[in-house]
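Hey everyone, long-time lurker, first post.

I ran two proteins through the pipeline my lab uses and got sequence/structure pairs for each. Pasting them in order. The first:
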Amino acid sequence: MVGFHPINRVMTVGTFLFIASLIVMVSGWLIRNYYGSSNLATVIWANFFLYGLLAFVISVILVFVGTILGARSGKLQERAGNIWNNRPGKR
């Protein structure tokens, strides 16, 4: 079985957390629109929005850290070379 590189793990977790944060924020928005401007809906909406925003910030940090780690290890250059066939010496 192929090992999963730590940089790939960080980027994968960051991506899934980003998607989850968007889902949480949208569900808070839907709850607010469904219940109107009642006190309960405002509290629920605020909690969903703040937790979604927190998850969004954490996901951005994780993706940034993964990008920095990938750039320092040379893995990003290797991947870019594989994608765009920019291998030096092989033409």
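...and the second, right after it:
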Amino acid sequence: MEKRGVESLFMVFVILGLLVGQSAADFKDCYGSCFLTCMIFERDPVKCGSKCLKACLGTYSSQNLKHTDYFCKLGCANSLCTNLSTKLDPAVEKVEGCVNSCSETCSKN
């Protein structure tokens, strides 16, 4: 039980570290690092993909992003993009393209 707690705490710090100073331009770096780190502990590419999409899409705020736009992108990316990553390949280019496609779809609605 203690080992699991330490692993979880470590993941929190890794994800927080990835978020500091993050911009939309470095989604690939954020997602790739987050995914590979997560796979060390989780070993589930879909779960890691989902966690890292949430972390790397950034947080929403009323000042810079509509709540509905953020949740639309997150939902779309979770549905369509998480299965692109595998245990051996985070497929950051494909995931980024998929997320960008979700951004376009969500901004139209």
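Reply from user beta_strand_b:
Welcome! Quick read of the second one: The chain has a mean pLDDT of 80. The helical segments are 2-19, 27-41, 45-56, 67-80, 92-108.
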